[in-house]
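Section handout 9: paired folding examples.
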Amino acid sequence: MKKKLTIQEVFTLALRNHKNNNFKTAANLYMEVLKTKPNHIDAVNKLTALLGNTKIDLLMQIDRGTAKRLLLFLFRRNDIDHKDIFLITRFLLLKEENHSYDQIKKIVISDSLLLENQIIKNLIDEELFQLMLQKSLITDFFLEKILIKIRYEILFALVNKNQKILSNYFNFIISLAEQCFLNEYIYFQQPKEIDYILQLKNLIINKEKINEMEIIVLSCYVPLYSLKNIISKLSNYKSENILFNNLINMQIKEPLKEKKLVNSIKSLGEISDAVSKKVRDQYEKHPYPRWRYFYSNTPANFLTIINALVRPNKIEINNKFDNPNVLIAGCGTGKQILVANNYLNANILAVDLSLTSLAYAKRKIEELNLKNIEFLHADILQLKNLNKKFDIIECAGVLHHMRDPLEGLKALLELLDPHGLLRLGLYSELARQDIIEVREFIKNKKFMNTINDIRKCRKAIIENKENRLLKKVLYRKDFYSTSAARDLMFHIQEHRFTLKQISKISKNFNLEFLGFVGQSLKNKFSIIFPNDKNNASLDNWNQFEKKNPDAFIGMYDFLVRKIK
């Protein structure tokens, strides 16, 4: 009789098949683990990675039905980052067995009503499509075009009292409203829509009784928390529809909680630096990024995680790091906190310029019931007053927005323990050529840093057919929400770096470069520079980036430490 495998043995077998590109077998084995143990975090994360990182043609060894079942399983969970499975979900939905991508394209560019087309109806009715709208930012300009057109039709169905359309798509419209809230209402609005929305606002405010359909249609255009006259009425309203209650929670109760949390956050005092003030004001208006769910991970030993990040390099330190002190300098809305929380028994101090961002982060952390995080409102330049040293300081996407990045770096190094590590994220000059082009385009078109001008700017870029470099920005995820687009294209302060500059800065500050984060990137590097065993030569990396200008399309993400 064949021995039954344990959960761990099945998981190990899944890992082996995953590594050998046997995706179908690996996926089935991950699911076998999760059927028995639904909260097996590693199996959830590996399944997400399989579906998120695998090339579409390789993934097609998994049949559509199985792939859809796996995606539904993941989208129903609230312990992953759903954007990681967006691309494969989009692929499956737009290339179904009964239609092609080209068919949908023809339907969308035609003058016919989308809501009267059977293919579009089928798409809208898909649970997978609705879950994707609720939980993952739509980062695709063609899908955005579909949603803009559908939203327009829904609004006019309400204006024309077309109850058939409205009642048929009630749950879908709620999903669309959640997506619009996630992207912070970045979709372009026609003058007709703006007029009708104003009328709808006034109608709702002056009504005694709540009309759920009117509320959800309006919430596709403006956040419900902006309706100050009826906030209390909506807060206390209970619907028979769970999705409607979820919408009220998302658009009213959560923002109200954040407003209360602002008062509970400690501050180091007034921010005095002029540039820091301007940057703070930007994030006060639009905290970045707005996110709903993120990965759960099993905490691991500090050095184990660090060595995994800088692999193939290896760090040797005569310190056990049993209770590492972690500073997140510029925590934003809190996603970085959850990454840092992977350090076993960590004590985390999360600092940011923006109280609104900190309140968002604190709400999310409280939802997860994490007790080891302290929040502080401060400028990096003020942190010398802490009189505290840290084992690791993480500062991603912050120094390049300061008046003087090197002054910020100096301030952080003063807080670093002698054995401590510094993880930095800095913009690459070479990888941001499209952003440089966009910023020039914005300057020439005289677009202002307002929500309406951001919408107009995006529309102009999407419709552009000549400038390829400008068009490249459409493939950046940050193009698809208001706070992210503002951060990407309209930021009031931006520095960019080259690897030669980073090498020089490291020498001037007596820092040892330990390595970049991102294994797939380092795999490519190792093919070109096999003799650079530690992947730690910035001269080699400089040559690599020249050959691969998009290698650091996000940021340079790397670790350094003080040379003793």
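Moving on to protein 2 of 2.
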Amino acid sequence: MNGTHQFDVVVVGSGAAGLSAALRAQYLGAKVLVIEKAPVIGGTTAMSGGCIWVPNHHHQSKLGGSDSPDEAMAYIRAVSPEGWHNTEEAQWRAFVDEAPKMLKFVEDLTPINFVPNREPDPYAEAEGGKSFGRNISAGALRTGLVGPWKNKIRLPAVIIELNYEEIVDTFFYSQPRRWALKFAPRLLWRRLRDMRTRGNALTIGLLRGCMDIGVTLWTSATAEQLNIKNGHITGVRINHNGEQVHLNTSKGIILASGGFEWNAEMMARYFPGPVEWTASPDTNTGDGQRMAAEVGAQLDHMDQALVMGTTPVTYEKRSQHGLPAADYFLPHSMVVNSRGKRFVNEKQMNVGLAFDERDPETGEPIHLPAWRIYDAQFATKYPHALPNKGQNGIFYWAETLTELASKIGVDAEGLEKTAVRFSNFARNGIDEDFSRGASIWDRNRGGDPSHNPNPTLGTIEVPPFYAMPFKASFLGTKGGSRTDAKGRVLRPDGSVIAGLWAAGNVMANSFGSKGVGAGTTLGPCLTWGYIAGENAAELAE
């Protein structure tokens, strides 16, 4: 495979952004190659929950909802960080305008059937917010659809055979036994047919679509250096299975290589402090950001990332890989810092913002280490969510909160006072400190609907008591090349680097760390891939 090869467009990365870009560019007549660093396809997308945030899409009417571009823009402006409208307005508008087109295009060109769910916007009460309708996900698909590639789809850390909507619309986390019985026949059917759900289903569908229209795909192909001539990107040098290969392009390169959360040097620079239990593939080492910078790109939002609390799992023989946790917002649970105090509404979607809150002088996290605290009531009602007792350094228990505090290095007096205060809130149904359970999001996304008076609050007062460290884990960084509304990479002076586009987490994400909805990673990834693919194929100027 050594030597030189010619394509119209080369896409670097095979996650949602990369496959969406390839699908669109090839459909418009370009000869497209997708290169993937790993030996498997799908990147972070294949490991994800598969939720996609798309305003004003064509499936919303199925749930009796309605939407408009103006409402979506009003919502994004209302909930985005202060001042971001000054730099991101054009990006937001492009996303809002193109996302519904992208969804219809993907559905038409692939075997994916998108299924809407009733998950609300996390700030549904804000101007333009919706109590349901903007979230959607791919229905289950057989691995056999991709033929020889079926064993080259990246596996998630834990295979979950339920679709996204089946989990969120049923409050599955609080009542798994009830719903497992109901879903048992379809789960058996999926297992027998080797069907995948969530991010795996999305990957399978996109890959099948790319295969059907002739996209070429190479795995174990690492992009090393962009070729530039007279300010125009003309190709890329790669390492493919240990051999140097030169790829020349007539139209250009689309970077879709993900974040840099596995690059120790870059993480130390932009995210000082402890980073544990990273939840993405270890191939996300910032190759796209580095190569773009080398040819003069402006890097922006490098301090933005999707940060969540996670539970450790073993993935690809690596222990303590992070799996996003789904237990900490159930009743009889809370999260505290080393002072034994709560510091956030545990139920809010952007809980990671609090975990990543840093001292302005030192750059160190203010609230970490943090701990999940449970009691015997939690263990009785939700045993499936209790930490694994066999994990050393992960699971702690004691007959008193004082003893538990001593074991985990938390201020005992602070923990006891917090538990008493939290329990009083639970009995009254009102969280006077952080309003947990008060919003539309809190009441309709997770929690236990059978628990009163507040489905997310329960007393913490019945021994024994349990603790588990709540690590701040990176699901993906969100900084990279600044682009225009066509996905073209820009220099610091605002000029376009001809022949270079960026999509997904390798670009300067216009939403940043604060997601405007569940799925505001995948939604923009798919959409910016679609935008970049279209403009690369057409060589828009």
